[in-house]
Predict the 3D structure of the following.
Amino acid sequence: MQLTRPLPITRDLVLLGGGHAHALVLKKWAMAPLPGAQLTLIDPNPKAPYTGMLPGYVAGHYERSDLEIDLVRLARQAGARLIIDRAVGIDTETQRIELQSRPAIAYDTLSIDIGISSMLPALPGAAQHLVPAKPLGAFAEAWSALVARSMDTNTAPKIVILGAGVGGVELALAMAHRLNTLGLPGKITLIEAGADILRETNSGTRRKLRAELARAQIEVRTDAMIAGITEAGVTLDGDDPLVPASFVVSAAGATPHAWLQDTALALEQGYICVDRTLQSTNTPHVFAAGDCAHLTHSPRPKAGVFAVRQAPVLYDNLRADLGGKSLGRFSPQKSYLKLISTGRKSAITDKWGIGLSGSWVWRLKDHIDQKFMQQFQGTMEMPVPNLPDERATGLDQIVDAHANQCGACGAKVDQSTLVQGLSLGKDGTLDDAAIVKLGDQEQVFSTDHLRAFSPDAYMVAKVAAVHALGDIWAMGAAPQAVLAHIILPPLSAEKQAEMLRQITAGAGEMFEACGTNISGGHTSVGAELTIGFSITGRLDRPAITHAGAKPGDVLVLTKPIGTGLLLAAEMRQLADGGDYQAALANMCRPQANASRLLGPQATALTDVTGFGLAGHLFNILDASGVAANLTLNEIPLLSGALDLAQQDVKSTLWPANSAQSSRMTMTASARTDLLFDPQTCGGLLATIPAAAEAEIMGAFQSANEPIWKIGDITPGPPHIFLR
Ligand SMILES: Cc1cc2nc3c(=O)[nH]c(=O)nc-3n(C[C@H](O)[C@H](O)[C@H](O)COP(=O)(O)OP(=O)(O)OC[C@H]3O[C@@H](n4cnc5c(N)ncnc54)[C@H](O)[C@@H]3O)c2cc1C
């Protein structure tokens, strides 16, 4: 195999919803991506729960992480752009998906696997008091909160479950088991509108499940018409109106997403009509799978098993659609083996007209579920092209290093190389921005760019904007004029325009929120996406530089550290999806307020970026001729950062940054490793007079801006003492 430039992108495939079918499509795509196609996954959450293990989680047999498919990791493996957002519309004319909180996304081929909800919107009080069993993630969250509350207050909860089908009965048994093992046997009532429960199961299974319900002392009410839900419980029509409850769950409704009604897609009772190829019956290039789809040729009940079975056909057809080839057919099976858990580690089968039961059925179910989940656990080796046989000395090492090169600030040239290459003088210290004099007036001027850390140009642009603004805020200035410099990866002309739209929207939103906008720039095409900005800043008082810190000053920091580590870990499929999303949100938090609040008092100010907290603190200490005490445990860390540091995950720039440890008094540990972690959009690091500490901390609190006191300045040659 030869090393070639990346191939241009000519087609966009968007997977809407991280449901079961799409999770499997992503896994297959990771093994064989289609050259020329950019894959995008859109879901409001970084993790999608697997339905088969939900009752086991409710019963306490599984941890939450056991049933979660990490969409961040899966997207990384598939080389997909992951957009954490909720679709609110689809314009099938212009082929764009409208999102709740960011600009629309274009598609050439679209696949929809967004599930359904078991919310009962028409029921009075439902919006305030009903917890739908679907979406599963929100339900799992609500259940764990109820368990925690019950344990804290040592009270057995009263629970009502609406709908006594398989889902409702399985949940009721799981809940009863969990509450019993906690020593808080609550009162659980199953309410069914029909004359009988478990209508979709065979008589043998039904008999056994009835016996299980009786054993678990779960009350069953049939023919019950629900009038509404209040804080006190569920009100029924009839003589015995109130069933008291503090937790009311709906396992009854199957409500398709309402916004689909506003699209031009053909629907059957709100579900997307698809033909044998899983393509919309009236809109080419749009496919649907799982619960949200209606199989016009062969309607089936809403069950995860169909989403799973559709995945291979869906995968082939999406590729075929992108490549202009003919589509294959999906033939759903007539029936399937249901394994229904009974709370304890036992289960009952539902097939062949009989219900076999016992712990062996649970073990079988557990084996099937664990095997399904194993596909999504652990990391996946990416194929690496071989080097040519004949090559110059040194190429192997550089190629190896480049293969693992981090994006964002982890891709910076290290400080000692800058010192040598730019003849910067011994300590290599430059301030965050250049100070430009215009007559009596002073202005600051800075430039910064980021190598993309993700295929999501909108998000990279946002992060790059905050990152570049950091240098302006770090001088105590307010941003004034902005020029963009953009290198686009290889794309067709149409995709170039689309990516530019995403970039200008992401960066534009951020600059506008910070009081400025992009007035021009320059764009070219290169090997990979790189976004940067040159910004001038207005000063209302003399610029705050690195020089000026005095013994006795207090050292403060305005954001937690660990972004380099989390970005590196995400790239290597080691980060938790939730932690990674939290880190991104933290990166996108502007520092304009923090700069404004620190400006009048700070004696020295910088932003923590590529050289890490220690490196940027040394910039202040070197320029000011002082030393610092750092209180290690007071330094705020991003969620997940310490865990990853303990696993020895490090950003590419870490070894160069850690050379500063020779100037520090410390005992090395995972926590001290984080002091050398390069930061993207890091917080402001300031020294403030001790006398101003209370006032500044108060002002930050009133403005709802986070700030941490992490140490103080002492006399002596530049050195960091850790305590
Ligand atoms: C208690 C219970 C137990 C069950 N047990 C079983 C079982 O044992 N076997 C079985 O086959 N079935 C079972 N089911 C049914 C099963 O849960 C569903 O059939 C299955 O989850 C459907 O999968 P899906 O791929 O259609 O979508 P889902 O798994 O529901 O996933 C939909 C995804 O789309 C995302 N999404 C939603 N709206 C949007 C939007 N607007 N924009 C972007 N993304 C969006 C969601 O965040 C979610 O990640 C059970 C259901 C319940 C309630």
Summary: The chain has a mean pLDDT of 92. Residues 493-513 form the longest helix (21 residues). The first strand starts at residue 11 and ends at 16.
